[in-house]
Each structure stands twice: as structure tokens, then as C-alpha cells.
Amino acid sequence: MKKNKKEHTEKRKGNGKVQELKRLYHETIKGKITMSVLAMVSIPLMILGIFTSVLNSHSTNSTLERNMKATVKVAAERVEWEMTSYQNIAEDLGVMARLSSEEVSLEEKQKILDERVKANELTRGNILDKNGISIFSGEDYSDREYFKKAMGGESCVSEPLTSKTTGKTSIIIAAPMWEDGVLGTQVVGVVFLVPEETFLNDIMVSTNVSENGSAYMVDKDGAVIAHKDMELVEKKENSILDAETDPKLKSLAKLEKKMIAGETGFGMYRYGGMKKIMAYAPVENTNGWSIAITAPLSDFNLETIVGIVLTMVIVVAAIAFSVSIVKKLAENIGTPIRRCAERLEGLARGDLHTPIPQIESRNEIGTLLKASEVLLEEFGEIIGDIKYLLGEMSVNNFDVRSKATDYYVGDFEEILLAVRKINYSLSGTLGHIRESADQVGLGSSQMAESGQSLAEGATDQAASIEELLATVNNVAEQVERNTRNAVATSKKADEIGDQARASNEHILEMTSAMGKISETSREISNIIQTIEEIADQTNLLSLNASIEAARAGEAGRGFAVVAGEIGHLANLSAEAVEDTRRLIEAAASEVEKGNVIAGQTAEALQSVIEGMEEIVKAVEAVADNSNEQNNSMKQINMAIEQISEVVQSNSAAAEESSATSEELSAQAIELNDMIEQFKLREEQA
Question: CA–CA separation, 501 vs 606, rounded Å?
Fold first, then answer.
């Protein structure tokens, strides 16, 4: 079960590594190349397109601003020129002597004036006396501002006025009329000319910069004085005033305020929901007039929009072309690398047989494929060689050597060195175990022989104790008879003394035998100590063998079982030896007690002998002493019985130790046979 769990864990780890490789591979070089190159191409192209569009728009607006400023300036100059021309005509009439002379008839003056009006395509003309009364119609113009200025000796252009004659809005060109036609003399009247009522509007209509554009003029107060829409002129439209109630006109009013301030400029505003542009300039030599040219911005954006669209189309086409080129480039680079990566991914899953894909390439990709092919070949050789080495060691053959040492280069050399170290270590450990097994077998044989000798000695001791027990029983019976017949048996005192001496000799023999038992017990104790040392050494060897088997992994499993059996046998031997030690120590203790009792018995018998010599003189004392001796002999009898039991126990323990030693010897032989199954290295090179 542990094996299956371990294999499952290793398989799961392997799958985890494969999934990690897949995750890393999904971030493909092909994708990165495609995205990077597209970014390198697309971003500059888009920036270029945006920059070009912005630059084109800015250039168009700048050109438009310059052109409109130039146009509005030309229009202002044209108005100024027209007005100056009319002023020159009026001034020329003011220095004509016939017009100022009272001798010239009104008809002639009218004729001269009409000819000049017709020649300059004017509407009409008129001559006012110094009181502001028309010399032709008698109408009073003295309240007009232009009359007052002309009478002051200054020619002028009036604001648009409603004509008293026609009722239409007109502009009056007035000039002083000098006495006798001499400039600088006394002003005797005023001559004024009236151009076409729409001449300013005609200039506005002719001044245009686009299909939907227009031009208009405002006076110093912001009122419209010229526009292609005469209704606005007649209503004197004033956006500055209208903006106070209509917020939508604020942007236009802001520009017109600059116009009446005499500024020249360019601006944008919204009117009627449409974004418009305006260029404005003052009309020189007028009473604060200013002209403006306007046009919807859409009239000029069409070409810009077309240019931007063409630019974006070119950018998109360039990006599309770049995509196709980049895809082809990424395919040429990414596909070989992907195939190589897939093969290396197979190698990560343990596939050593599938060949590297063949792709013709002389660049770094070809080098990568060649390196992958060499890597696959060397991995196959190395893994195959490791499989061979570990396979041989798994069938107990440690006398094996690598067949592909040339492939273990660089860091791979450490793998071969590690396998060799495992081989040397296991081979050396098994050799040491074999030697230890031989030593255990030899020690077990010796211990068995010692145990057999101990058992035989214990048997002899038991026989001697039985004989001693019989003797002590006889002595007890005699002492008891002596007690009953003490008075009547003085004659037999010498016989008892003789028997006491014999008993003393037996006691001495028993003491000697007990000494031998004690010496034998000490020898057995030494043997037991030797067996314990052997068991400890065997146990240590078993522990070392288990450690080495664990390091060997799967290949050392069989050896680990053998080491475990050796350790088990060593533990059994140690337990048996410990039991034998306890029994022998107990026997030695009892033997020591027996020695003490034997010595006491010998002393008692010696006292008996000495008492026998005095029996004749003191039979009564003998009777009393015999009674005490009877009690003592009973105690001796009990002690001897205990000694007999101890000796029998020692004999059984010796026989059991002998059997255990024989079994340990058999196990050592079996262990040696198992070690012989391994073929060990004879040399460490």
C-alpha cells in the first residue's frame, strides 16, 4: 500500500510539472513576437496617423486663418477704397467754381451734378447751401451730422441713414463746397453724393470664402450696416445687445466687441447650432466701421476629414500588411520552438523514444533543435545506464559497472558517483554483515558448548546434593536416637564421634563442591557476558544494515528484511542471555548461602566431635546438646533441599541456554546463507 501511495504521489508531482510546462508554453514565443512586432508597427503608425491628422487639421486651420484674414483685409481695403473714391468725387465737386457760383443756373448745376453721378454710377447727388437747404428741392438737411461736418470743412461718410427722398437706407458722401472753387477758402455750401443703397451689400456678397460663407459690416456700436440679407441691415441687427438676453450669441458678441474696438483677428463661434469661423478687420478712414467674413467650419473640414480618413486607411492597410508579415515571421520562429518544446515536454513525462522533429534551419532555432536532440540522446543513455545498474543491484548483483561513463559529463557525473557510492556502501555493508554472521555463528557454537558443560556440571552438583541430603538425614536420625538414648548410649558416643568425623569430611567435600559450583557460575557469567557482547554487536550491525537498506531505497528492501531478522534474533539472544544471567546469579547467590551453611555445618560437626570427646564425662550435657543438634539438623536438611532446588534450576537454565545458543548458531548460518546470495564487489574502483 505504501508503494502504491508513493507511486501515486510521484505521478501527481510529475503531472504537476507537466501542467506547469504547459502553462509556461501557452505564453508562446509566437504570440509574444506577434504582439511585440505589431505593437512596434501599429503604435508608431497610429501615432503617425494621429500626428498627421492633427498636423493636417492644424495646417488647414492655419491656412484658413491666414486666407480669411487676408480676404477680410482686402474686403476692408476695398470698402475703404470705394468710400475714398466717393469722397474724392465729392471733394472734386466741392472745388468746382461753377457749382459754388451764384451766376450759374440751377439747371446747369443740376446737369453738372447728374453727369458726375451718372459717370460714377451713383444714385443721386445734391447741393446744400450753407443753411442746409437743398438748392434743388428746398428740403432741409441741416440736422444731418454729415452736413455739420462738411460745413466744418471736412469731407465725411455718414452712417447708414433713411433717405428723406427715397425712404431707403443709404450712405451719404458729403464734402464742403468752397467759395469760387478755391480749397481752403470759405465754405459756402455742401455737396453730397448717394451711392447705390446696396453697394456695401454688394461688396459683402462678392466677398466670400466658401459656399455657405458670408460677410457683413458693423458700425461703431455693433449694428449691422452691410449684409447680403438686407433685412438685417434694415433692422440694424446688433448681436452684442441681443447677447444680453440670448446666451447662445455670447461667443459671437465677444468677437464683435473686438471688431468695434478696431482689432484685427480670427475666431470661432456657434450660431444656429453650427460652428463657424470668423475673420475681422477694421475699415480705415471710417467712423469705427469693421468688416467680418464668416463661414461654417464644415465647409473647410471636408478635405481635412478626407485626408484623415485616407491616412487612417493607409495606417490600417499598413497594420494589416504588418500582421500578415508578422504572422509569417512568428510562424517561422514559433512553430519550430513549439515543436521542440512539445518534445521536451514529452521528455519531462518520461518519453525517451519519440524523435526530435526535423526542421531545416541554419539559425539559432536549428542550434536549439540540435541541442535538444543531443540532450534527448544523452538522457536516454544516462537513464538506460542507471536502469541497468539499479536493475543488477536489485537482483543482488553488486559486482556491476557503468556501460556509458562517457555520457556522465558536468553535473551528470555526480549521478554516476552517487550510484557508485550506493553500490560500494551496500557491498561493504553486506560484507561486514557476512563477517559478523560468521562471528555470531562461532560465538553461538562456543556458547552452546559452554552451556552443555554447565548443564553437565549442574547435574553432578545435583547428585552430590542428593548424596549430602541422605547423609544429613542419617545424621539427623542418629542425633534423634542419641537424644532418646543419651543416658544409655555413652558406650556408643565414640561411634557417634566417628560418624561425626565422617560427616565432617562429607561437609568438607560438600563445601569443596559448592566452591566448584560457585566457580562454574562465575565462568557461566563470563560466558553470558560474552554472549551479551555478541548480541549487542549483532544488534548494532542490524541497525547499521537497516540504515543502509533505507538509503538504498527499493533496491535494499530484501536486505532490510534480512537485517530485521538479524535484529530480531539479536534481541531474542539478549533476552535469553539476560534470563540466563538472572538464573545463574540467583544460583550463585544460593550457592554462596550454601557455602555459608556448609561452613556453619562444618563448625557444628566440629563442635560435635569435640563434644563426643567429652561425652563420657558429660552424657547429660550431650543429651541437651543432641536435642539442639536435632533442631539444627532439621534446618540443615531444609537448606540442603533449597540448594538442591537451585542446582536443579541451574541445570535447567544451562540446558535452555545451550538450546538457545544452538538456535542462534543456526540463525547465524541461515543469515550467512542469505548474504551468500549477494554478489559483492571484490574491488572498490
Answer: 8
- Phi, psi angle pair for 226, to nearest 5°: -155, 130
Q: What is the pTM of this model?
A: 0.43
pLDDT digits (tens, 9 = 90+) for 89-111: 989 988 998 888 888 898 998 99
H-helix segments, 247-297: 250-260
- The residue among 117, 144, 149 whose CA lies nearest residue 133 is 144
Nearest to 198 by CA among 175, 242, 166, 156: 166
Strand partners, 214: 294
Q: Hey, how many other C-beta atoms are within 10 angstroms of the C-beta on 304?
A: 18
Strands 224-227 and 265-271: unpaired
Q: Which amino acid is at 14?
A: G
Q: Could you tell me if 448 and 662 are in contact, meaning their C-beta atoms sit under 8 angstroms apart?
A: yes
User: Which range is least confidently modeled, 152-166, 279-293, 603-617?
Assistant: 603-617
Q: What cell does 88 get?
A: 474724392
Residue 157's DSSP bridge partners are 173
Answer yes or no: are the C-beta atoms of 223 and 238 closer than 8 Å: yes
- Segment of 41-45, 169-173, 336-340, 359-363 carrying the highest mean pLDDT: 169-173
- In angstroms, the CA 167 to CA 155 distance is 24
Helix axes 413-484, 619-676, angle to 10 degrees: 160
Q: Return the closest-CA partner of residue 174 out of 219, 143, 128.
A: 128
Between 430 and 213, whose confidence is greater? 213
**Per-residue pLDDT tens for 45-83?**
778 777 776 776 677 677 778 888 888 898 889 888 888
DSSP letters spanning 119-143: HTT-SEEEEEETTSBBTTT--B-TT
How far is residue 513's CA from residue 206's CA, in Å, rounded to a whole number? 163
Per-residue pLDDT of 177-209, as tens digits, reads: 998 888 888 999 999 998 887 778 888 888 877
